[in-house]
Amino acid sequence: MPQVGGHLIVAEKVLQSLGNPAYIQQNRNAYNLGAIGPDMPFFLFDRIGQFNVLNTVLDVYRVIKQIIGVLDEAADAVLDPALDLGNWFTGKMLDSVRGLVSLSFESFKNFVIITLLPGSTETIQNPFADCSYPGVPSGPTLTLTASDISILFRRFGHPYSYDRGYKDAEPVGVYDHWWWTDVLHYRRTGPFAAQLVANAGADPMLTAYARGYWTHIGADVTGHPYVNAVVGGPYREHVIRHMVQENIIDTWLWDHYKNEDIINAALHTKVDVGEEDINSILRLLLTTMNDIYNPPPGALPPIRPTYFPDSTPSQQDLERAYKTMLLFLELSTNCGITPPVPPPGSIDEVFQEVWNDITTEVEEVGESFGKFGWWNIFFWWLALFLAAMHALNVLIKLITLPEATLIRLATRSPRWAIYKAQCALYEYVINARFALALSGFGKASREDLIRSFCQLATTNNPKRAGIQNAFEYPSAQVPRTSQLFWLADPLEYPKNLLNQKAECSPYAPYADPSCFVDGPSYPVAHDASVLSFAGADSPAATVDIEHATFQLPQFGNAVEFSRRLIDGLYPAACFDLDADFGYGFLGWDGTSPYYVK
């Protein structure tokens, strides 16, 4: 974190700086998956039994998704010509009504869920009662609960997070109840990445993955301080706010560097490595986890969370996390909605619409033969059938041309009524999706970036920047007594800062997120000063280094710093990847550091 989109952008730029080596180009998705790094284990849902319901639901959705995909592929191909013939007389009114019902129900359900108080369950009247439409419940009531989605992030948190009623801070030096994603973010991070490269050996796919993992380290060390600056504090104190702001920053980065809306980016396709490669990658991860966190006697003390029988998850556990992550990315970055298209507003436009329909149908006669592979005899006969159906449609449309034109003219008014309803629902879906993003469970759209909250999330707060303000970090938690409490900036509350005062980030006031991706360069001339972060022997020493190097770019940008890590020009330090206690901090055991500068 930065989120998946931001990590893929940094990884792509690092790849270019490396000269696009063939072994990475040929294993690009493995390299991209490596760039997600220790974020993938977030989807482990480690506490065995606690999240069985969530995992069961995800499994059911995976199966349903596969079944629907197979049935839709054949059913749509057979039914499209007949449906199109019905649309010919109504100007696609049938399509509009069908889409209206489905969209109405999903929007209504989402609206109710995201407005429920955390943990509550509500039974409400079903506005679609007695509606005979596939997939839409027809009973008199609907029962919706927010419990499973409202408290998930608060239960995860950081090992040292304290959130009354949800999570207690873990004792210092005790790792029994640490999530593996936290271990990989806060303990022995550099040595783990270096060991990945060593264990990958000469395998080009595994090496591509391991190089990608280094880009995650570089992006986190440079990017999380920016996130902390816009959030107002570290992940351990502001868990949901951190997730929300990161997702908005992800949308901004994808729009800025890709000129594309991230909700249409289909990020799952960029990290899907296939069955054989993922098994090899998971074995590499498990071997390295044992090497680093369960070393032989006499070496470093072991770090062994107890959520799994053997401390480390099994290969099947990690595979579940990987597939869950793919599903989440598919649902959140392949969910764009097309704005409604208005019906013709004049007689000339009606005639043009009729003519366009006929020419399209003629083209589809030929296209039917290209819909299916020639090796499949069933689909070859289906293609012949479709071609005949489309040809028949052309003939009927030509014969009924005058009647169809008159009917379309007569239905202009109801078609506009449907269009206006669709517009209203479209606007609602846009707002509902943004509400989900503000809860930490989805991506904002590029259209949302003009909203004031998104602008704040993509602008370095001047009250936490500059030599006077950057060292007043972090802010205390905001009160957790009201709905959406995480949207409030900690500075809005007259609470004293926490004891420690460290550097938040080196970025300029009002800087946008590009500052940490490819902003100021690594200060090679002051390499010794920046290298001292990796060798600091205490938290207080780190603060001294922060002050001494603050006028420099310090680690510079994510792309150049990642490249230095990959090339071995910067040591494999044990960075706290969340910059949890301040910029450039290592992952020390012990209580939160106390010092005043």
Could you give the order of strands across the largest sheet? 1-2
Total strands: the figure is 2
Helix content: 55-70%
Radius of gyration from the alpha-carbon trace, in angstroms: 27 Å
What would you call the structural class? Answer: mainly alpha
What gap, in angstroms, lies between the N and C termini? 29 Å
Q: What is the H/E order?
A: HHHHHEEHHHHHHHHHHHHHHHHHHH
Unreliable stretches covering 5 or more consecutive residues: 60-83, 372-382, 593-597
Number of helices: 24
Overall form: globular
Description:
The chain has 597 residues and is mainly alpha-helical. The protein has a domain at 4-46 and 155-335 and 451-567. Helix content is 55%, strand content 2%. The chain has helices at residues 4-17, 22-25, 28-36, 52-90, 93-115, 147-150, 152-156, 180-186, 189-200, 204-231, 239-258, 268-271, 274-293, 315-333, 347-367, 377-399, 401-410, 412-438, 452-457, 466-469, 514-518, 527-531, 539-549, 558-567, and strands at 121-125, 141-145. Strands 1-2 form a two-stranded antiparallel ribbon. The two termini are 29 Å apart.
